[in-house]
Specification:
The protein is an alpha+beta fold. It is built from three helices and 22 strands. It is about 30% helix and about 40% strand. A six-stranded antiparallel sheet has the order 3-16-20-19-18-17, with no helix packed on it. A six-stranded antiparallel β-barrel has the order 4-11-14-13-12-15. Strands 8-7-5-10 form a four-stranded antiparallel sheet. Strand 18 and strand 19 form a beta hairpin. Helix 2 runs antiparallel to helix 3.
C-alpha cells in the first residue's frame, strides 16, 4: 500500500513538472510580443527632434569686398621702325630713365636728304622762271596758261618737300613720354623693316591697379572713391583712387573691371605685380545676417529650415554678402523667423522639432 502511494506521488510530480516546462515558453513568447508591440507603437508615434534656433533680425554690416588685382604701368609703348633702313644710332641704356622727346634711335637718312636737296634746287629754278614769266605776262608776251603751269609746278615741288621731310622725321625714333627704358630688341647696324620692334618704354609713376568685382556690386563702385591694396610679403597698406570703370560687364565671368591710380614715387610697385585689393562700399544698416551653417545647398539654389507650429518648414533663400561666420539673406526670410541651425541633415519638411532652451 505504501509502495503504491509512493509511485502515485512520483507520477503526479512528473506530470506537474512537464506542464510547468511547457508553460514557460508560452509565457516568454507572450512577453516578447508585448514588448515588440510597445516598441512599434513608440516608433509610430515619433519623438520631436531637438534643435538649436537662431532668431532672424537686422543688423549693421560694413560692406567690404576683397579682389585680386594687377599693377599696370601708367603708360607703356613698344617703339617700332616706321620706315625701312639701316640703324646707324641706338642711343639708349637699358633700364635707364629717359625724358620725353629724347632721341633713341636713328635710321640712315642720306638718300632722303639728297632727295630733299634736289627738290630745293628745282624750287629755286621754278621760282626764277615764274618771276620772268610774270613780267612777260604783264606785257602780254606769253599767254596765261604758260604762267599757270609754272606756278603749279612751284606748289607741287613744295608738296614733294613736305613728303620728304615727313619721311626724314620717321628716321628718328624719339621718346613719346618720360619713362624707363626696357630691354632692347636689336643692335646698332641692323637693317630695319617697318614694324620692327626696337625697345619698350614704361612709365611707372603713377601706376594703375586693375581688379574685378562681381556685377552685383557695380552700383556701389564709384569713380573717385579710394580703395586699399597690399603686396605679397609687404605688411604695409597702400591706397589708390578709382580712375575708371569698364562700361560693360564680362558676360562670361559676370564681373566688372575697375581701374585705380596709385602714386609710385619710389618705384615700389612694379608693373605686373599681384595685389590684394580691399574696397569699402556703402554700409548696410538693415541687413539680415544668419549663421552660415544654417544654409543647405540644393540643386536650384539654397534653402534653410525654420520652425513653424512645432515643425520644420523649408524656405528657399537668396544670399548676398558673406563674412567669416555669417551670410546675408536678401530674400526668403523675415525678421523674427526661428531659423534651425543644428541637426539639419536629419531634418525633413514637416518634421516635429523641439527647440533647445
Amino acid at each position: 500500500m505504501r509502495t503504491i502511494m509512493l509511485v502515485a506521488g512520483i507520477i503526479v510530480a512528473l506530470v506537474l513538472g512537464k506542464l510547468f516546462i511547457f508553460s514557460k515558453p508560452g509565457e516568454g513568447k507572450g512577453s516578447d510580443a508585448k514588448k515588440g508591440g510597445d516598441a512599434k507603437n513608440a516608433k509610430s508615434s515619433g519623438g520631436a527632434v531637438p534643435v538649436n534656433v537662431f532668431i532672424v533680425g537686422r543688423e549693421s554690416i560694413e560692406n567690404q569686398i576683397f579682389a585680386s588685382g594687377t599693377v599696370l604701368p601708367n603708360e607703356e609703348v613698344n617703339l617700332m621702325a616706321e620706315i625701312s633702313g639701316r640703324l646707324v644710332k641706338l642711343d639708349i641704356k637699358e633700364g635707364a630713365y629717359i625724358n620725353k622727346g629724347q632721341l633713341i634711335a636713328k635710321i640712315n637718312d642720306r638718300e632722303l636728304r639728297a632727295q630733299l636737296q634736289k627738290v630745293a634746287y628745282n624750287q629755286d629754278l621754278s621760282k626764277k622762271i615764274e618771276a620772268r614769266q610774270k613780267k612777260l605776262l604783264n606785257v602780254e608776251a606769253i599767254n596765261l596758261e604758260e604762267y599757270d603751269v609754272t606756278s603749279n609746278n612751284i606748289r607741287v615741288l613744295e608738296a614733294e618737300k613736305e613728303v620728304i621731310e615727313a619721311q626724314l622725321e620717321k628716321t628718328e625714333i624719339r621718346a613719346p613720354f618720360s619713362g624707363r627704358i626696357g630691354l632692347k630688341f636689336i643692335s646698332e647696324g641692323a637693317f630695319l623693316a617697318p614694324g620692327t620692334p626696337i625697345v619698350t618704354i614704361v612709365q611707372s609713376n603713377p601706376v594703375k591697379i586693375d581688379f574685378t568685382v562681381p556685377e552685383k556690386y557695380s552700383p556701389s563702385i564709384r569713380v573717385g572713391s579710394t580703395v586699399k591694396f597690399n603686396l605679397d610679403g609687404d605688411p604695409s597698406t597702400y591706397s589708390a583712387k578709382i580712375l575708371a570703370i569698364d562700361p560693360k560687364v564680362d558676360e562670361n565671368l559676370r564681373t566688372l573691371r575697375v581701374r585705380a591710380l596709385a602714386n609710385n614715387p619710389e618705384g615700389r610697385f612694379v608693373p605686373g605685380m599681384f595685389v590684394k585689393v580691399l574696397a569699402d562700399l556703402d554700409a548696410n544698416r538693415m541687413a539680415m545676417m544668419i549663421p552660415t551653417e544654417a544654409i543647405v545647398p540644393v540643386l536650384k539654389g539654397k534653402k534653410v529650415f525654420v520652425v513653424k507650429d512645432g515643425k520644420a518648414q523649408e524656405a528657399m533663400v537668396t544670399t548676398g554678402l558673406r563674412t567669416d561666420k555669417k551670410i546675408q539673406i536678401i530674400d526668403g526670410l523675415q525678421p523674427g523667423d526661428s531659423l534651425i541651425t543644428s541637426g539639419i541633415i536629419a531634418i525633413k519638411p514637416n518634421t516635429a522639432v523641439k527647440v533647445n532652451l
